[in-house]
Amino acid sequence: MEQYVIKGGNKLVGEVSIGGAKNAALGILAAAIMTDETVTIENLPNVRDTRVLLQAIEGIGAKVKYVYNNCVQINGGSISDMIVDYEYIRKIRASYYLLGALLGKYKTSKVALPGGCNIGSRPIDQHLKGFRALGAEVEIEHGMVSTKAESLKGAHIYFDVVTVGATINLMLASCLAEGDTILENAAKEPHIVDVANFLNAMGANIKGAGTDVIRIKGVSRLHGTTYSIIPDQIEAGTFMFAAAATRGDITVKDVIPKHLESLSAKLQEAGCEIVEGDDWVRVIGTDNLKSTNVKTLPYPGFPTDMQPQMAVVLALANGASMVTESIFENRFKYVGELNRMGCNIKVEGNTAYIEGVEKMTGAELDAPDLRAGAALVIAALAAEGFSCINDIEYIQRGYEDFEGKLTVLGAVIKRVDNEHDAQKFKLLVG
Ligand code: EPZ
Q1: Any catalytic annotation for residue 117?
Q2: Which atom of ligand 1 is nearest to the CA of 370?
Q3: Of 26, 148, 278, 291, which residue has the fewest beta carbons closer than 10 angstroms?
Q4: CA distance 397 to 133
Q5: pLDDT tens-digit profile of 12-71?
């Protein structure tokens, strides 16, 4: 199994260009199959989740052309199969966007249910409630979700919880329905807006994305388009927090600073200096990080996908901090790994109580999920000595060339897949 070998202690300094948003891309790739014309998608992050979804899209008969590393062309006109049941598709949650896209376009879909994952049970009851409200029959059997409808009619849908996935899935399922659909208590993340903008570029009629009420007027068909995905708020945030943890100085480029406001605000509270430009944000770290408290919330609140990275920074701050996770029920699995590096963190319920420490020391670590894995990389970069991080395929789900970008910033990191290469690297960088 691949792992990262990291020698910590270097300040990360320099500039890094941020790629397209993974969580916008997954909704956009699903939406792309809702027209029989060709769609060109640019600034597509080349990460495992997007590669797996593209594989599934090809599997059901769509034509996919890889124009260059971050650009694909998709033509759904040749789709012949509405059943998505591939072993690999169960590994990514966003497979459920094909449920909404195929239902919306073909009035039927059948997709293997994604399991829960390491951050919580992650039910999809709100997705299914919405499909039924539009007039679809929905069944779950043998690990598959099946939907079918004579026709789809617009409906007034109120989400019991703010849910990114269901908001996107119901925009997909309703954009070709007869009549108007209203989504209440909708998620407002930047990637929701990006998926709505993409659908509108294909001829959909969606208003209000980015607010908690989204209005969709069904149209008869969608057409091809060319679209560039917004920058990834969480990739940018991960590098911003790496600057703080390593007392470095990093400028994240090709970003939308507005999307990073809650992150910049927390870093300023922790004592970092933030400088903002039109499409860049510079984070200047400090040797005296200050403790503070954070609670994860739906956008524009502090994003849950940055919660582990925040905990790493606060673990090195002076004093006591609290991190409260309000979105998922099991998103502190990384805390045990940090404590093995010398951190002092206690989890009670959905809150981590953090006593800052002078320093962390390197250790053998296991990445429990995507964002916690990225946070452990940040911790290893800030720690004294060597760390090895296992299960890095989680990290590759959402970060393109993570070790390459970190190396340019001064990190001593290498991806290896055997003990011999790990030892060789350690001797080399001693
Ligand atoms: C998306 O997951 C992201 N994944 C997650 O990012 C992100 O953490 C999450 O949104 C919150 O921002 C993708 O976009 C592929 P939700 P999603 O539906 O859509 C509950 C990453 O690291 N809920 O907004 O699955 C749910 O249990 C990943 O990139 C229901 O109860 O999240 C959770 O408590 C990790 N019923 C809350 O809502 C439902 O039908 C928010 O979930 C749906 C959700």
Answers
A1: yes
A2: 22
A3: 278
A4: 33
A5: 999 999 999 999 999 999 999 999 999 999 999 999 999 999 999 999 999 999 999 999
